[in-house]
Amino acid sequence: MSLPTTPETEEGACVISTQGLTHRYGQRVVVENLRLLVRAGAITGFLGPNGAGKTTTISLLLGLLKASAGSTEVLGLPPGDPKALAQIGALVESPALYDHLTGLENLEITRLLRDLPRAETDRVLGLVQLVQDARRPVREYSLGMRQRLGVALALMGQPRLLILDEPTNGLDPAGIQDMRELIRRLPLETGASVFLSSHLLAEVEQVAQDLVVIHRGKLRYQGPMEQLGAPGRAELRVQVGNTAQALAVLARAGFACHEADGRVLVQAPLDAAPHVAACLVAGGCDLYELSPHKANLEARFLALLEGP
Ligand code: ADP
Questions:
Q1: Ligand 1 atom nearest to 58, measured from its CA
Q2: Is the CB–ligand 1 distance for residue 55 below 6 Å?
Q3: Does ligand 1 lie within 6 Å of residue 23's CB atom?
Q4: The domain 235-299: what is its CATH number?
Q5: Is 214 in contact with 53 (CB distance < 8 Å)?
Q6: Whose CA is nearest to atom 22 of ligand 1?
Q7: Per-domain residue ranges for the chain?
Q8: Nearest 5°: phi and psi at 172?
Q9: How far apart are CA 92 and CA 197, in angstroms?
Q10: CA dihedral sign of residues 112, 115, 117, 122
Q11: In this structure, which residue's CA is closest to atom 23 in ligand 1?
C-alpha cells in the first residue's frame, strides 16, 4: 500500500494541516479559523490555557467532532478516515483500561482486535518501560503507570502520528518526569511525529521542538520553540556569593549585565557561558549557578495570552 502524500512545509512533510478550521458549540465559537501546519518527525507542543480549545481541536483532527467550517488533513487524509486512524495513536484524557486485568492483558485485547503480531505487545511494553509490571493488575498501577500504559496502547501498530492530550495531567513529579522522558524518546525510537497538548509552557518547553499556541480558539503562535522568546535578548542567569563583585568583574570583561532578584543577568547567549564562568572565577567570585534565563520565553507566552 502506498502512503498518502502530505503537503510540504519549508521544513518537510506535514502530518497535520488545517485551513480555516472552526468549531462552534451552539452559538459559541470555540475554535476559530485555525491554520495549523504540523511538520513530520518532530514533537510539536500544542499549548494554551484551560478552555483554549485544545481538546476540541484534537477531537476535530481525530474525526470525533465534525468541524463547523474549514478543511483538515491528517496524514494527508480527511479527519476520521479509517486509513488515517490506522496510522494514528491517540491518548485523549485518561485511557480506558480494564482494572481487573493486567497491563499485558489490556494490551493483548487491543493487539488481538487489531490482528497485530504478539511481538507488538512486548515492543510497546518496552517502549513505555512497563515490562516489570506487565503482569500486575492495572488496579495496582499508579496514575503515571496508567498513563504510560495508555501511551503503550496508542503506540500499538507503529503509528506515524501520536496525539497526546495533556498526558501529564494529575501526575506527581516523578510521573511527569517519566512521561517527559518517554515522549522525548518517541520520535527517535519509533519514527512517529508527536502532537502534544498542555496548558503549561514548562511541560512542552522541555520536550518540543515546535510550538503552536492557541488562546480562546485562535492561533497565537506557530513556529520553532526557540523563536517564541526571540524578541527578547538571550540572557544568562548567574548566582554568586557577592553580586556587586560579579557585576564589576563582568562589566570589566565587557559584558552588559544587571542585577535582578539577587541574581546577575548577563546579556549573552548560551555558548558564552564557559567564558562568563571563567571570568567570574578568575575575578575571585564564588559561582553557585549559571543557567539560561527563561523569562523571555515565559514573558512572551504570557504576552500572547493578552488581548481579546
Ligand atoms: P482545552 O482543551 O484547551 O481546555 P476545550 O477544547 O476542552 O479546551 O474547550 C474549549 C471551550 O469549549 C471551553 O470554553 C469549553 O467550556 C467549551 N466546551 C468544551 N466542550 C463543550 C461541549 N461539549 N459543549 C459546549 N461547550 C464545550
A1: 6
A2: yes
A3: no
A4: 3.30.70
A5: yes
A6: 25
A7: 11-227, 235-299
A8: -80, 170
A9: 10
A10: negative
A11: 25
Supply the residue whose CA is at minimum distance from atom 13 of ligand 1.
51
Structural element, H or E, at residue 289: strand 287-292
Per-residue pLDDT of the chain (308 residues; tens, 9 = 90+): 333 444 444 445 899 999 999 999 999 999 999 999 999 999 999 999 999 999 999 999 999 999 999 999 999 999 999 999 999 999 997 888 999 999 999 999 999 999 999 999 999 999 999 999 999 999 999 999 999 999 999 999 999 999 999 998 888 888 899 899 999 999 999 999 999 999 988 889 889 999 999 999 999 999 998 788 665 567 899 999 999 999 999 999 989 898 988 899 998 888 899 999 999 999 999 999 998 887 677 777 888 888 66
Atom of ligand 1 nearest to the CA of 214: 3
Q: Is the pTM of this model over 0.85?
A: no
Same CATH topology for 11-227 and 235-299?
no
How many angstroms separate the CA atoms of 115 and 294, rounded? 47
**CA 56 to ligand 1: nearest atom:** 6
Nearest CA to ligand 1 atom 12: 30
CA 87/CA 40 separation, integer angstroms:
13
CATH of domain 11-227: 3.40.50.300
Nearest residue (by CA) to ligand 1, atom 26, is 25
How many angstroms is it from 304 CA to the middle of ligand 1?
A: 20
